[in-house]
Design a protein that fits this description.
The protein has about 325 residues and is α/β, with parallel strands linked by helices. It has a domain at about 5-180 and about 220-250 and about 290-305: NAD(P)-binding Rossmann-like Domain (Rossmann fold, 3-Layer(aba) Sandwich). The chain has twelve helices and 13 strands. The structure holds nicotinamide-adenine-dinucleotide. Nicotinamide-adenine-dinucleotide (NAD) binds near residues 12, 15, 16 and 34.
Length: about 325
């Protein structure tokens, strides 16, 4: 449906700004709310002169602002969050407050004006996977509360429960998407949230690619164009309301393989180094060995399947990093 007005929270961030590009291209109007704690003006600057686009610098924790913006839009893509294990391990309190209170604020305001909400969750909610591939109804197995890493998963699980409770008890149209390692242009160059960004940045700086642990752990990487397509399909499909969807690529690769491909893309001119988890994240860190999505539900209900092969997406991502090298990597 073209011609809708969407609020995109976190729209100056990595996935959010790619979503904004596609929404505007599809004929929609977009208001972005982002506090720029991580998001960048450069991700959205090319839209500032577009009358269908508006940027508001502010926080999802600012209730009057959220209510005011909500009243003027048709629906909300809620992506604003403290994202990724590293940021959350650094400041678990801020992570939980932004992720949980921010989502509650969005849902409350949406209820007041009867607006549909899409909440973004994470494959992290599966914790220590029991079955792989991971299906939306699989059990969540998390580590102890003494390990801050798990607070990110807990905050996202609470977001999902809130979205479903508003849906079931208040009849608010809500839908949840669980992303599996999105990558592509505009990845955070600090590499906090993404091993792909980290490897490319290291390669561009002539540093060794640092693999945590023995590198045999696997992940499924999803090109951001696919992530955006799945997200918009979830918003546009009425049958999706009240459900969570895995939005990811089914193909798995080991972190060693990934490092090898990045090294090849730089003509083998970089070293690969293995470092213990403890050195990267401090004591008590726990990683998960495999994390691959079962996308049957997304395929059946949303008609979604990831299309961009990793080799192709990686090439496009490396090209983008090379083109933006001067902005991304301090001399
Ligand atoms: N990228 C992934 O692979 C991935 C995986 C799983 C889940 N997710 C989820 O997808 C969403 C987007 O992630 P991303 O990768 O684009 O991360 P990102 O950090 O690039 O984007 C998050 C954005 O939220 C903004 N933000 C943070 N706190 C805010 C606040 N209080 N008010 C307003 N804006 C605020 C940040 O400035 C940033 O622009 C997040 O909810 C994240 O948890 C992403």
């Amino acid at each position: 449906m073209a011609g809708q007005h969407f609020l995109v929270t976190g729209g100056a961030g990595f996935v959010g700004s790619n979503l904004v590009d596609t929404l505007l291209k599809s004929g929609h109007r977009v208001t972005v709310l982002d506090d720029l704690s991580v998001g960048k003006m450069r991700n959205i600057a090319h839209h500032l002169a577009n009358p269908s686009f508006r940027f508001i610098k502010g926080s999802v924790l600012d209730v009057p602002l959220v209510e005011r913006l909500m009243s003027g839009v048709d629906a909300v893509y809620h992506l604003a969050a403290v994202v990724g294990v590293k940021y959350v391990v650094d400041d678990p309190l801020r992570g939980m407050l932004v992720n949980v209170n921010g989502t509650e604020n969005i849902l409350k305001a949406a209820l007041k004006y009867q607006r549909k909400v899409l909440v973004t969750s994470s494959s992290e909610v599966f914790g220590r996977p029991v079955n792989v591939p991971l299906s939306e109804n699989d059990a969540t197995v998390l580590g102890p509360t003494s390990v801050p890493r798990w607070s990110y998963a807990v905050s996202k699980l609470l977001d999902e429960h809130l979205a479903f409770a508003y849906n079931k008890q208040q009849q608010l149209p809500t839908v949840v998407v669980r992303y599996f390692n999105a990558y592509g242009p505009r990845l955070d160059p600090l590499g906090y949230g993404s091993v792909i960004a980290k490897f490319i940045t290291q390669a561009l700086s002539g540093k060794p690619l640092t693999v945590h642990g023995d590198g045999s752990q696997t992940r499924s990487f999803t090109f951001v164009g696919d992530t955006v397509r799945g997200t918009m399909a979830a918003m546009d499909t009425p049958e999706a309301e009240g459900l969570a969807f895995n939005i990811g690529n089914r193909r798995e690769c080991t972190i060693n393989q990934l490092a090898g491909w990045v090294r090849d893309a730089f003509d083998g001119a970089v070293e690969i180094e293995h470092i213990p988890y403890e050195q990267a994240y401090g004591k008590n860190f726990e990683d998960t060995k495999r994390r691959c999505p079962d996308i049957s539900r997304a395929r059946e209900v949303l008609g979604f399947e990831a299309q961009v092969p990793l080799e192709d997406g990686l090439r496009r991502t490396i090209l983008w990093f090379k083109e933006h090298r001067d902005e991304l990597i301090p001399a």
